[in-house]
Amino acid sequence: MATKDKARQYTPTTVRRLDTLSRNNCYEPNCNKQLVGSDGKTIISKICHIKAASQNGPRYDALMNDDERRDFSNLLLLCDEHHRIIDNKENEQIYTVEVLTEWKHNHETLSLNKKIVTNSKLLYKAIEAIANLNFDDNIIDDKTKPFKIDIKIEYNRIKEYKCLIDEYKIYYGKIDALYLELEKDGAFKKIKLLQNIKNLYLKQRGIYISNDTSGDDELEVIRKNSDNIIKNIENILFESVELDDDSILAIPIIMVDAFMRCKILEEPINDSK
User: Fold this and answer.
1) 185-219 in b/e burial notation, b at 16+ Cβ within 10 A?
2) DSSP-derived pairing of the beta strands 75-78 and 46-49
3) 3-class DSSP assignment, residue 201
4) Do 48 and 96 touch, CB atoms closer than 8 A?
C-alpha cells in the first residue's frame, strides 16, 4: 500500500481501544448517536484524525510522521455526521486541535472511570497481565526519594500526558492496596510489574539517547522526548498483554502509578529546572 495511506492503517489494538472507550457513543459531547447499527452488528462509526492524515486535510501538522498520525492519541471515534463536519476545512477554526483533544480526553476519561468504578477487578487483571510479561528482569528495584507529582511533570517537561497523570493519580491508593493484597498471598506482582515497566523505560531511554544527533546532554534528550517515551511504553504494553476489552483499558492507570513510583522518566533533583 502507498505510503500516503499509512496514516489510515490502524492497528487492531488501536481500533479496539477506541471501540471500547467510545461506549458506543460519538465523542462529540452533545451527540447521542450510537456507533453500532440497530442490528447490533454493523459498525457505523468513523475514525477521525485530530491532526489530519493528509496534507490537504484540516489541522495538518507537517512535523508529524504517519505513525504519529495513526496513533491512538491522535484519533477520535465519531458518528458520520460529526466526522463530515469536523473534516470540513471550512470548520477548521471551530474544531481546532485543542477542542478535539479536549473531547477525546473528557470522553475517554469518563469511560474509563465508569468502568473502574463498576468493576474493581479490571486493575487486578491488568496488574497480573503486566507482571506476567517476560521482559528482561535485570533491574534492581531502586529506592527513590519522595517528590511531588507536579514537580516531576515539570522536571521531565511532560505536556501531552500531563492531564492523564493528573486524572489517574487518584488511583495510587487503590493500586497500592491491591499490591499489598497480592503480597499477602505470597505473590511478587508489584516487584515484577514495576521491573517490567522500568526495563521498558530504560530501553526507550537508550534508543532516544543513541539516536539523538543534537549534541544535547542525556537529560535534555529525555525531556524533549518525554511524551513520546510514555506513548511508546504504553503502546508496547497494549500490544503485549492478553486481556479482555475492558481490562486492557486499565493500562494507562497502571502506567501513571509506575510514573509516580519513578519507574518511568527521570527522578527530580533539586538543582535542575
Assistant:
1) eeeebbebbbbbbbbbbeebbeebeeebeeeeeee
2) antiparallel
3) helix
4) no
CA separation for the pair 211, 22 (Å, rounded): 37
Q: Would you state the torsion angle of the CA atoms of residues 87, 93, 98, 103, taken in this order, to the nearest 10 degrees?
A: -50
Q: What pLDDT, in 10s, does the model give residues 190-200?
A: 999 999 999 99
Q: Which three cell numbers stand for residue 255?
A: 502506567
Query: What's the CA gap between 133 and 217, in Å, rounded?
Result: 32
CB 64 within 8 A of CB 51: yes
Q: What is the pLDDT of residues 124-140, one digit of tens each?
A: 999 999 999 987 655 55
Burial letters 134-163, b for 16+ CB under 10 A, else e: ebeeebeeeeeeeeeeeebbebbbbeebee
CA angle 140, 202, 232 (to 5 degrees): 135
- Which phi and psi (to 5°) does residue 49 adopt? -85, 130
> Residue 178: how many CB atoms within 10 A of its CB?
21
Contacts of 125 (CB under 8 A, 6+ apart): 243, 244, 247, 250
As beta bridge partners, residue 34 has 25
CA 25 to CA 29: how far, in whole Å? 9
Per-residue model confidence as pLDDT tens digits over 67-122: 999 999 999 999 999 999 999 999 999 999 999 999 999 999 999 999 988 887 99
Q: Classify residue 214 by its DSSP letter.
A: S
